[in-house]
Write a structure and sequence with these properties.
Blueprint (H helix, E strand, L loop, with lengths): L13 H13 L4 E3 L4 E3 L7 E8 L16 E7 L5 H11 L5 E6 L2 H16 L4 E6 L21 H13 L4 H13 L1 E9 L17 E4 L10 E4 L3 H16 L6 E8 L5 H18 L2 E8 L8 E9 L3 H8 L8
């Protein structure tokens, strides 16, 4: 198989170079700790919000450090979570006495690293809580139909809502409760047209025939639930929409936030074509989409694909929080 050219110098130094480039652009607004791979902003008088994970999902999570959003992002190596020591350093840099909320995607290695950091930081006197995001409702394979429940693109909506609530002075315990309520109303499903080509091997993480798409594939190339011939954007929209309808059991009295997320190499034209197909289905089903975002917000490096996130909005303050202005670079 022919290798794919990528703009990099060395896979080993790519994460550090990326963060340094991001800081060069945003140095008037944020701070950068290259030793611990931290992007952070000055502490405020509120609870600090820290998130992060493996690199390769940009602009998540450093693109969401800003007002009404995150206080810090801890960035691991490619598809690998940050070490507990780096997370502890982020806590030290941002905790002003009101406590720290860690927003963690539900992957075993991520949860292990952040939980260990929480334990060590608490022994040092910090007040720490964790919100675990598990919005991926795809099934792992077509035989078991067990739910994946990993943290994917919906995490970005939780970042924004909790960030805005923290900025209004919400306590650490109340932010944790709000995060758990948000997660219970959050649903994401995805589809890939091509696997990401990994920077070290220059080869795709999974293979598809030329005419195939892969429903339910994970953001690290985890198995999806079905490969089928590809026909159109409308086909993709109908599949994901109908799955969402079954998951949420929506009715016309409910309000939803919608996130259409490109997975890395999906063009904006493709994203908006898919969104148009989706909007027609929403109209047919009389679903109230009060908030809609379209773009690449949590990617799988350069995977060609798209994900759909729905967040049920039973609390009007959640919608208001989504609409609050921010200076974060990629919201």
């Amino acid at each position: 198989m022919k290798k794919v050219k990528q703009i990099q110098n060395s896979a080993r130094t790519s994460v550090d170079a990326m963060l340094a480039g991001y800081y060069f652009q945003n140095s008037k607004r944020i701070s950068y700790d290259p030793t611990h791979k931290l992007i952070y902003r000055p502490s405020t008088s509120n609870v600090a919000l820290i998130s992060g994970g493996g690199s390769g999902h940009e602009p998540a999570d450093f693109g969401y450090v800003g007002s009404n959003l995150l206080t810090a992002s801890v960035n691991g190596d490619f598809f690998s979570p940050p070490k507990p020591g780096a997370i502890i350093e982020a806590i030290k840099k941002t905790d002003n006495g009101k406590g720290v909320l860690l927003i963690v995607k539900n992957f075993p290695s991520d949860m292990e690293s952040f939980t260990k950091a929480k334990f060590i930081a608490e022994k040092a006197g910090h007040k720490i809580e964790i919100v675990c995001v598990s919005d991926d409702h795809s099934v792992e394979n077509s035989s078991t139909y067990s739910k994946r429940h990993r943290g994917v693109a919906g995490t970005v909506l939780i970042h924004k809502i909790l960030g805005a609530l923290a900025e209004k002075g919400m306590s650490l315990s109340d932010l944790k409760k709000a995060g758990e309520q948000l997660n219970a109303n959050l649903f994401t499903l995805g589809v890939a047209l091509e696997g990401a080509v990994l920077p070290e091997t220059q080869r795709p993480m999974f293979e598809l025939d030329h005419d195939e798409v892969y429903f339910g594939v994970g953001i690290h190339g985890e198995d999806g639930y079905r490969k089928v011939p590809y026909h159109s954007s409308e086909q993709l929209a109908i599949e994901l929409f109908n799955k969402m309808k079954h998951l949420t059991d929506w009715n016309s009295t409910e309000t939803y936030a919608v996130l259409v997320n490109g997975l890395g190499s999906t063009t904006l034209m493709e994203q908006y074509i898919f969104t148009h197909d989706l909007s027609r289905l929403f109209k047919i089903e009389n679903v109230n989409a009060a908030f809609v975002k379209v773009g690449s917000y949590l990617t799988s490096y350069n995977m060609h694909g798209i994900s759909l996130t729905l967040l049920r909005l039973p609390d009007p303050s959640w919608l208001k929080a989504l609409e609050e202005e921010t200076d974060a670079s990629h919201w």
